[in-house]
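Researcher: For the record, we're logging two predictions in this thread. I'll number them. Prediction 1 follows.
Model: Prediction 1, sequence and structure:
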Amino acid sequence: MIMDLHNHTLYSYDGQNSPEQIIENAINNGVDVVGITDHQFSIGTGIGEYINKLAECKEKYSGQIKVLAGLEVGTRPKPDDLLTYDIAGLDYVLFESLDDYRAMDFFEFVSWRHRFACPVGLAHCDIFAMSEMYGVDMTEVLKTENIFWELNTSGHYSCYYDFLTNKRKRDAIRRAGIGVSIGSDTHAVYEYRAKQLRRANELVESEGFKKPFNL
């Protein structure tokens, strides 16, 4: 199974394609499960329209690919008004850049994340650097809190390449039983990195990593 659970569309300020174009690109590249995860700060109060649009896409492409409705939430700073929106209908939420020095405190995040009933993951985040930052074993925290971790194949995050070559870190993820997702972080189909996406999915399979949630 090939998953790509991090994609942006015109619902994001920096997305260049419609949801249909992103989904059809995924189909053309042999992806089995595609997730749309537009920025919450771009969607704003249009969250209902966004979720309805993705529900239509799920139906339209049924039988060709599994489409999931996701959301990428910024943490620099925490969006205090997020839960005033109706987010029922989301399949999962990605929280981005919690390893950034401008991000909300991680322990505050752990408490806050329990307000989300759907699966929760960390996007393009170096959890091993965070272990040193907070003085805790992040693999154990993520296991305890049922938070999955994303391997981001966009090429913008060095922690991904380090993970590919660091057996100790891969062993730590497998031992902890943390769910691992794969995300291309695509903002335009012309930049799609299909080879890197497939390699990351093969790594998840060969290492026996747990899936992020029931796909």
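Researcher: Logged. Prediction 2.
Model: Prediction 2, sequence and structure:
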Amino acid sequence: AELSRLWNAEPEGGLTVWIGMDLVIAITVSWVPLIPDYTRFSRDRRAAWWGAGLGYFVAASWMLVLGVLLVLTRGLSDPAELPAAVVGAGLAAALAVLAVTVDETDEAFANIYSTAVSLQNLVPGAPQRALVALVSVAATIGALAFDLRRYQDFLFLLGAFFVPLLGVLLAHWLLNGARYSRSDVFDAPVVRPALLGAWLLGFAVYQWLHPTGPSWWVDAVESVRPPTGELDAIGVSIPSFVAAFALAAAAVVLSRR
């Protein structure tokens, strides 16, 4: 690829830079709940920070850059065309697709395990193996029914869930002295209504600025948006994160008083 030509090409994708950043953030932030599964093996805080930070940054940047080059050089407009375009690039590319396919298998196991562990917070008495089996069946059905051409909508939905969740977690962690002890986790209240409210507000802000989901939901949100539009001029992740972070911080401070 002629990188200079691609860098100077006129934009034609229909998305602003800020909305493009929201998609990148959504891809990355959705993995935040899985990071502790790795950092819990770290020997100290510095190793946890640099291991997770550099590991995710290098891998995510590499894959995103490859995706950009592939889309721009092959002139693709449909996500479903990606696998065929890679395989058609030659034997080495076909082997790369095979490697990614194998890699995605263990990624599915990680997702299923993480979901089962999260569900155990709601139903501690449920057997973990049963939860793993149920999540596997539900995920398989969802994968078969999912339309790859709507993957962008799926990413926005991920962002709406996880961006404000990270804001709540970061606010609570910082006001807790930037560290958690064993008692902070296992002796904490079962439900924290104020923090749940902060997360829901962040989700509402994200959806209000950029509604995503079933048509009935998008129509309902659109009906309460002002007619001027352009509410996502600086993207949607930053306003959602700030709203959830601020409300969670206020909730923590007031609860201590």
